[in-house]
Structures are given as C-alpha cells and as structure tokens.
Amino acid sequence: MEELTMGKALEITVVSLVVVFAVLILLMLILESFKYFFKADIAAQEAQEKTKNQKLVDQGRELPVTDHQVDKETEMVAILTALIMASEDEQDKHYQVESVTLIK
C-alpha cells in the first residue's frame, strides 16, 4: 500500500471540498431556477388569493369592540398566533401587524 504524505492528504482534502461546494452551488442554482420556471403559476395563485381575500373582507361585518385592558403578553400571543395561522399555507410571505383590536 502506498504511503500518504501530508501534501497528498492536503490535495485530497482541497479537491474534496471543491467538489462538495460545486455540487452545493449546482443544487442552489437548480432550486433558484424553479422560481423562474413556475413564476406564472405563482402569479395566478396570488391573484386568486387576492380575490378570495377581497371576497372575505367584503362579506365581513363590523364586530363590537370592548374596553378591556389586555396585558402585553396576551397581546403578543394573539399577534404570534395570528401570524402563524396566516402563514401556514405560504411560508415565503412576510406579514406586518398594523393594529391589535380586542373583539368579543
């Protein structure tokens, strides 16, 4: 069996790292290209969701607001729960809470 020198071991290590990173970059490029291939499908889905959401808003009714005091922890739990529910179907979206209103 051939004896492995330090230079040969270093060469194998560098070549292996280059191969691994090249494969990772190739996979990243393939995954990124999916955005461009399926862009029309995503746009159509977003348009459908906007019309669906608009219908829900149009059908909505004004709910009574009470004057209860809510502590910050309860408010934060409500905000996080609402954001989790809103992002269940679409993890790529970003939501911003504009106001918090207690309804009963």
How is this fold's topology laid out?
Blueprint: H1 6-37, H2 39-59, H3 72-86
Q: What's the rounded overall pLDDT mean?
A: 79
Rg, rounded, reads 26 Å
Strand proportion, as a percent range, falls in under 5%
Give the N-terminus to C-terminus distance in angstroms.
80 Å
Structural class: mainly alpha
Low-confidence stretches: 62-67
What would you note in describing this structure?
It comes from Jeotgalibaca dankookensis. InterPro entries: Na_pump_deCOase (IPR005899). GO terms for molecular function: sodium ion transmembrane transporter activity. Keywords: Cell membrane, Membrane, Transmembrane, Transmembrane helix. This protein is mainly alpha-helical. It has two domains: 1-60; 62-104, no CATH class. The chain is built from three helices and no strands. It has helices spanning 6-37, 39-59, 72-86. 0% of the residues are buried.
Question: What's the short version?
Answer:
The chain is mainly alpha-helical. It has three helices and no strands. It folds into two domains: 60 residues; 43 residues, no CATH class.
What labels would you give this structure?
104 residues; mainly alpha; 3 helices; 65% helix; 0% strand; sodium ion transmembrane transporter activity; membrane; transmembrane; cell membrane; Oxaloacetate decarboxylase gamma chain
